[in-house]
Write a structure and sequence with these properties.
Number of helices: 8
Number of strands: 0
Distance between the termini: 74 Å
CATH class: Mainly Alpha
Helix content: over 70%
CATH superfamily: Tetratricopeptide repeat domain
CATH topology: Serine Threonine Protein Phosphatase 5, Tetratricopeptide repeat
Order of helices and strands: HHHHHHHH
Number of domains: 1
Length: 158
């Protein structure tokens, strides 16, 4: 009987701990850690981002969800470029609706890369130009540098 009670208490404690980890502050911290690291698209990073995105579906935090989708889009570029478009499109829907310039800039760069890889250079250039504008408004130097380089490479190669 004691063992059964211990197991039940343990399961409730685990569930409470798992639920506690899915709060907005904890998810924000996990996103910031991934943003600060080199996003290399490893299985661990992808799995962690997928977990964060799933948890954010239950938390009302469009800024975090858009940032997580931007990170996931960029991670997907290392694995399967065409599949990254789904993350970019979903993130752009959220970021534009919430008027989030920083995540929008990152998502536009990712979608532009997908379009460039597919040979749609005009659409890619449009995404890169819009990404520069959003990055400037947000004051996001990382997104600005990325979009400027991508825009320049498309202009130079076409």
């Amino acid at each position: 009987m004691r063992a059964a009670c211990f197991i039940i208490i343990y399961l409730f404690a685990c569930a409470a701990f798992a639920e506690e980890r899915a709060t907005e502050p904890s998810l924000r911290t996990r996103i910031e850690v991934i943003e600060a690291a080199e996003n290399d698209g490893t299985v661990r990073v992808v799995a962690d981002l997928d977990g964060i995105i799933a948890a954010l579906d239950t938390v009302v935090a469009p800024d975090l969800l858009a940032r997580a989708l931007a990170l996931r889009c960029h991670a997907q570029l290392n694995l399967d470029v065409p599949a990254a478009a789904a993350f970019a499109d979903r993130g752009l829907d959220i970021a534009t609706q919430a008027k989030l310039d920083g995540p929008t800039a990152h998502l536009l760069s990712c979608r532009g890369y997908v379009r460039e890889a597919a040979g749609d250079i005009d659409a890619a250039l449009g995404d890169y130009i819009a990404s520069v504008e959003h990055a400037e408004r947000a004051g996001d130097k990382s997104a600005l540098a990325q979009a400027t380089v991508l825009r320049g490479s498309v202009r130079w190669s076409s």
